User: Fold NADP-dependent oxidoreductase from Actinoallomurus iriomotensis.
Amino acid sequence: MSEHPHTSREVRLAAVPSGIPRPEDFTVAEAPVPEPGPGEVLVKNRFFHVFAALRTLIGGSVEGAPFAGLRPGDPLFGPAIGEVVTAPAGGDLRPGELVAHWRGWREYAVLDAEGCEPLGAALPDPVAHLSQARTAYEALTRAQVRPGDVVFVSGGAGSVGSMAGQIARLLGAGRVVGSTGSPAKAERMVAEFGYDAAVVRGAGPLEEQLAKAAPDGVDVLFDNVGGEDLRAAVAAARKDARFVLVGALSGQMSDRGGGTTSPVELDSFQLIVKQITMIGYSNPGRAGVDTEWLDRFAGWLRSGEIAFPYVRVPGIENAPRALHDMMSGRHLGTVVVALED
Assistant:
């Protein structure tokens, strides 16, 4: 068995916050390194994703969600990449190989060996396994993006939206418009991530901005936000528009409440008259390797057809601050905590 420390650090919820979680709502605590049992793998985490849905889990989750809520004292969790330290003899895994899993926010984790697959070297940067490109691709294909479509991506500068704009273009969209809360992010969305135009919340009525950015109307909405963005999309929708609802950031990022509701008032007459189709998409949270998807994504990355924007935050001790900064809108793209080698 490889040598490893007897203790490691993990981020725990200290108290249920009121409003956006702050660093003091968490503790970075020491815990014994877990011992793998029969058929289990010990991994040393290398990277983990700081994701918006944690706000909902911290608030207690919602009925029907794939993950239960967190209580004070619980360690956080989420998508991670870990390096195998020990693995069952005779199995397919070897020490040093990288695997994806959902036990982030800690330095060491024990996983079921049967649920682990080596990530290999398909992607030019292993951190790209934490991208939300696959979520964006699957949701956009469910919305049946067609050549020439006008696509509106709400929350276009976040971890999902920064990939969705680029993928909509690759699927044939004729015009791609995104929304954000920052003029600086809007500029980068257009310059770097495939958007033809970006509208900015707080810079005037969103419906008016979207009408100017998409004067011929919207065929597809990729909705990360809800709220004002969803109302604007209904107003701009063409007949037979297809809406796919992926996130609810207007509720999750609100400085009021617990992030477990995202109410919005819509004009149902417009839904009827325009014959809008609206579906919900929930990422199943898979951690395994899909070879077909990886080959396609790797090709896009290597050819430069897609960029994976991410912010790298060093050290688990900085993870609570990274979560607060991400929820406060400081960063563009995916926020990743990198643990020391």
